[in-house]
Design goal:
The complex is a heterodimer of chains A (about 200) and B (about 120). By secondary structure, chain A is mostly helical. Chain A is built from 6 helices and no strands. Classes of the chains: A mainly alpha (about 200), B mainly alpha (about 120).
Chain lengths: ~200, ~120
């Protein structure tokens, strides 16, 4: 009898107050698939299996020791890539070859349709040393060029030289800066025009 | 870009014949000109440049074309881009000729340095 009056927290709906946009429509949203904590009891396993649309006997959680793929109670999916799936079946989502409610594996990004590998089984082997080399082969030339080009000596290092001499002004503004009148320091400049 | 690159590399490899681009020419400006050279004249007075509040960088030998441009712009703003094209072109052309003059000065300096080097090689 008291079961009838027990209210779970999931029954408290604040959606009418906080919902906006597509959340105002009824439906099953990604937040309903959000992983919970790793299941320890049988009851939790059943609840997790139902949440992910699996049979309780098919539900296999991911070992927490597998640091790359563990995500709470998110289950393992067998390896079925996009290219392995039947192209002629009437999928709900033909673009991803997935039916509504079908479990999306934790490794989906490796096995989806726009990957280069056919089988999806080639793992991405990012070895740490190779990663460091790939970064350094860009950064080290950048540093070298910066060092070469940051030499302020006009005759030192590599310097980008414009084949022009400084601009000619009628007065010596550098000498007059900042307090003197430039008119006190006139300069005579000549042009290359031919004298007739 | 190719000319600037070749200039940079050549001047780096032979520094004694490369003109310094941060200071004026070192040789006598009238050397080698039998008939002399015409002087560059300022065609607008300091007071008029003060009146139009020209910056120091604008008080060069093209200021006499910049001042009509400023007058036209203040007349026709905001359509000055279309109405003042002639004045703008005249001033731009003058600035371009000035830049070509700078290039010529550099080339003259470089050739005089090469000549000096040749003469030292012969004389020594």
């Amino acid at each position: 009898m008291s079961n009838l009056f027990r209210v779970s927290s999931r029954a408290i709906h604040t959606t009418p107050l906080v919902a906006r946009g597509p959340l105002t429509f009824e439906g099953w949203y990604p937040r309903d698939h959000k992983p919970g904590p790793y299941p320890t009891t049988e009851k939790e396993r059943r609840a997790a299996a139902i949440k992910y649309g699996l049979r309780p006997e098919d539900y296999r959680p991911i070992d927490p020791k597998d640091l790359n793929r563990h995500a709470g109670d998110y289950p393992e999916a067998e390896i079925v890539t996009f290219d392995h799936k039947d192209p002629y079946e009437n999928w709900t989502d033909h673009h991803h070859k997935r039916n509504w409610g079908e479990l999306v594996g934790i490794d989906m990004m490796s096995y989806r349709g726009d990957r280069i590998t056919f089988t999806g089984l080639d793992a991405e082997d990012y070895k740490p040393l190779r990663t460091i080399f790939v970064i350094l082969r860009v950064i080290v030339p950048m540093a070298l060029f910066t060092y070469w080009y940051s030499n302020s000596n006009p005759n030192g290092g590599l310097r980008w030289k414009n084949p022009v001499l400084p601009k000619q002004y009628p007065y010596d503004f550098y000498r007059a800066f900042p307090w003197n009148d430039p008119q006190k320091y006139p300069i005579v400049n000549y042009s290359f025009e031919p004298v007739d | 870009m190719g000319q600037k690159l070749s200039t940079s590399i050549e001047d780096r490899l032979s520094p004694e014949t490369s003109p310094r681009t941060d200071r004026p020419a070192t040789f006598d400006p009238l050397a080698g000109f039998e008939n002399g050279r015409p002087k560059r004249e300022m065609k607008v007075s300091w007071e008029e440049m003060d009146q139009y509040n020209l910056t120091i960088g604008q008080r060069d030998y093209c200021a006499h074309l910049l001042i009509p441009l400023i007058k036209c712009q203040s007349n026709y703003v905001p359509a000055a881009g279309h109405m003042c094209v002639d004045e703008r072109h005249a001033w731009d052309k003058c600035e371009y000729e000035d830049y070509i003059g700078r290039i010529k000065e550099y080339e003259r300096e470089k050739r005089l340095l090469l000549r000096k080097k040749r003469k030292e090689a012969i004389g020594a």
